[in-house]
């Protein structure tokens, strides 16, 4: 008869892969993260209390491993760097373009919002399960999913991200100031020559 603990690990592997991919945005790193999380779970097997929420326990281990790994390499990498191959190929069909846009938008979400959205929408976790898996309050879990959905909708409808919008406003203001400076410079020069 198969060990129940190992059976539960095998059963949750697909969901762990989805969560890992949402966190790392890289298939190879996601597979490594899942493998490390499973090793951690096997090592901590005695700390799991049978009858409690095994999926939440595993998702928490994977998330904690991700955070631990991130801290170790934080000096050399940035979590918000986009993979170089994200936009390398141009899709031939509109559907593929929409999927590419969605993938790009998902990658721009903050990691906690992206993770929450994937776990609730794709894996069907409840907000309570999400809160347990990520170690936050249920209200925080709901807020993360809400903000992620709202931001994705805005981006998919063509609205610029806040940082891009502010950058555009700053450039427009800079151009306006420069234009006024040039106009006042011409005016000053004309005024000065009239009084000579």
UniProtKB/TrEMBL annotation:
Pfam family membership, one: Sigma70_r4_2
Domain RNA polymerase sigma factor 70 region 4 type: 104-152
Annotated stretches, region: Disordered: 174-196
Entry annotated with the keyword Transcription regulation: yes
Biased segments, Basic and acidic residues type: 175-189
This protein's UniProt keywords: Sigma factor, Transcription, Transcription regulation
Positions of the RNA polymerase sigma-70 region domain: 13-75
Alphabetized CDD domains for the sequence: Sigma70_r4
One annotated GO biological process: DNA-templated transcription initiation
GO molecular function: DNA binding; sigma factor activity
InterPro entries, sorted: RNA_pol_sigma-70-like, RNA_pol_sigma-70_dom, RNA_pol_sigma70_r2, RNA_pol_sigma70_r4_t2, RNA_pol_sigma_r2, RNA_pol_sigma_r3/r4-like, WH-like_DNA-bd_sf
Family: Belongs to the sigma-70 factor family. ECF subfamily.
PANTHER family reported in the protein's UniProt record: RNA POLYMERASE ECF-TYPE SIGMA FACTO, RNA POLYMERASE SIGMA FACTOR RFAY-RELATED
Protein name, as recorded: XRE family transcriptional regulator
Annotated organism of origin: Acetobacter aceti
């Amino acid at each position: 008869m198969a060990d129940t603990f190992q059976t539960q690990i095998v059963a949750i592997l697909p969901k762990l892969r989805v969560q890992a991919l949402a966190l790392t945005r890289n298939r190879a790193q996601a597979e490594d993260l899942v493998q490390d999380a499973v090793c951690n779970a096997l090592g901590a097997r005695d700390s799991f209390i049978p009858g409690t929420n095994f999926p939440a326990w595993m998702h928490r281990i994977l998330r904690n491993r991700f955070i631990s790994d991130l801290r170790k390499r934080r000096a050399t990498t940035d979590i918000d760097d986009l993979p170089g191959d994200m936009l390398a190929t141009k899709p031939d069909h509109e559907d593929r373009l929409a999927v590419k846009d969605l993938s790009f938008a998902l990658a721009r979400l903050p990691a906690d919002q992206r993770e929450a959205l994937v776990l609730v929408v794709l894996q069907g976790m409840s907000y309570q399960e999400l809160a347990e898996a990520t170690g936050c309050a249920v209200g925080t879990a709901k807020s993360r999913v809400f903000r992620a959905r709202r931001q994705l909708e805005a981006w998919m409808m063509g609205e610029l991200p806040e940082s891009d919008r502010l950058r555009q406003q700053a450039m427009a203001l800079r151009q306006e100031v420069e234009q006024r400076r040039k106009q006042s410079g011409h005016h000053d020069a004309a005024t000065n020559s009239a009084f000579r």
